[in-house]
Amino acid sequence: MQPLQGEQLFFLLISPHGLIRGTDLELGRDADTGGQTKYVVELARALAACDKVGRVVLLTRLVVDPQVAADYAAPSERLSEGAEIVRIEAGPAGYLAKEELWDHLDAMVDNLFNWMNDQPRLPHVIHAHYADAGYVGTRLSNQTGIPLVFTGHSLGRVKRRRLLASGLGRATIEERYNITRRIEAEEETLANAELVITSTHNEIEEQYGLYDFYQPERMQVIPPGTDLTKFHLPGSDESTSAIARELGRFLRQPDKPMILALSRPDERKNIRTLVQAYGESERLRQLANLVVVAGNREDIRELESGAQEVLTDLLLLIDQYDLYGLAALPKHHQADEVPQIYRLAAASGGIFVNPALTEPFGLTLIEAAASGLPIVATEDGGPQDIVTNCQNGILVDPLDQEQLTAALLELLQDWPRWQQLAENGYAGVHRYYSWSAHAAAYLRQIDSLIERSEPLPRTPFAPRHQTFYDRVLVTDLDQNLLGDPDALAELVKLVRSQRQLAGFAIATGRRIDSALRIMRRYGIPLPDVLITSIGTEIYYAPELVADLAWARHIDYMWNPAAVRRLLTELPGLKLQPRVEQSRFKVSFYIDPQEAPSLEEINRLLHQHEQNVHAILAFGQYLDIVPARASKGLALRFYAQQWDVPLEQVLVAGGSGADQDMMRGNTLAAVVANRHHEELEGLAELEPVYFAERPFAGGILEAIEHYDFYNRCRVPEPS
Q: What is the pTM of this model?
């Protein structure tokens, strides 16, 4: 999709969770509104400032909630010339923690896809931030062919290791953090992303290296920038600022050098060790004040439990070491006061400290360096790259309190060294960590990626048989339609009587020839659309015209020979007869007692760089299809071409192969005989109706439940 001559680029950035707005970012408000929030806003502005970029949209979730500002309920917000925030509905109106968003991401995909199709042109690139955005971006990329870029920010496998090490059990971790869904989304995203942008080399090797679909050749280190118009050397007015007066309330000698820590109140930030080091060193207390800025609070008791524990612990330590008049732990600060805090510390001859147990990057270290402030930081992760590039501080073991104390004393007692490190940091940030440098490096990587991509054309497919219905009934074939001849006859009569109002579609795992034989045997009319072979083939009535554009689209990176070679010799797997195989489907019988788990099969495929969908149906059939193919993706392609709203598509399914048709904005029903364990997760979703009748009778029941041929909507709660 090489841009036309003179055409400017259009980037879509996706970051669903947290509270995102263009001004007064509520950083530290909760665990979801932190460094990533700031990163995506500043990236959007930096890209929009480039000459070759015409438009940047930062996509997040629309939040209508009296507990948060009304800003987050605005459908759009201008960030700068060429950059804007767009907010899309996904699930309940209120604010949700990121762990609670997973069941609503399919709705975000469908709503975002509709929004994209309303735009004058499609984006050139989709850039997903964090696992939830990766889930959304992967599906949009597979639907459209637009190349996907991914930035993980933090990774689920790393978090799970850390939580296990803290003593939490696996069941607790799963219940609290939905960690398996997060890791699965990350694996899928890594399999589909053309480019993965990381902040440090350590992140590639130590974090992404834990993943099955680890492809370092697709990964590039492009450190995030910082806003150098906000973060700069101190001037003459810092000491008279409101935040200086606020900090001064705590300190007997406010002009002493400041040891500054700035983070959200999170146990992993390890502020406790810093306070202990300061409290136990008489020399540190003589030389400097301690200032800890740990978010905003009104009443600690009203904060979430982790923040409560951290802040309570810090206050108890201040009391234990009698640090009154020596240490400041302010309740409030404004976002625009953060740069002033750094400058106050720099003007005092102080030091910025980041003692986190693990630090994937360390944006606060860059901000401090830009303000002329030397650093002492954890030797884990991102700070290694920053200190290597900028030569502006000392790395320490965050669990070694004596080492931390020694590093602070070394800088506080050596003024020439302090000055040299401050100068080095200021110069290094301008060279390596400005947003303009980041954007330039980013665009160099994007150029070749765009040239290689082949998105689906936006021109609608024009089938020979044209109808004008505004809704569609979609069903699986075998045990959904079969099993109750009387109910099937009633359903067929109803479908025929409504053909001018509603379309009829069948989505099956069978090949087309096998599906047609079954339909003739049971008197099932030819549907308007026949989706076969697990969504890899689409045919249009009455002449069963194959959709060749769909076939070209899903052929991307498909290697069936490699799939057969990897899986054929596995215990418990046996290739199905040739009649059940097709160009885009490799099908096996699977014995769950002998075969590896689906997770293990996926891991094997990923490790050998096979970007595919592995679909388990009825506990005995395993189908491998291209990453861009599934029943759900095929259904959405068809609905777009025929301009049928997904909100007016009723899907009746039952196996794991039907699940992605039933998620998102479609109306969905599971017939009684198909209440299969593969669909247990759907029971939590509001729109999914579980019928009491089996087979075609369950479909008739769902038609009545949704009033499909009249109002066609989810009924109001009784």
A: 0.82
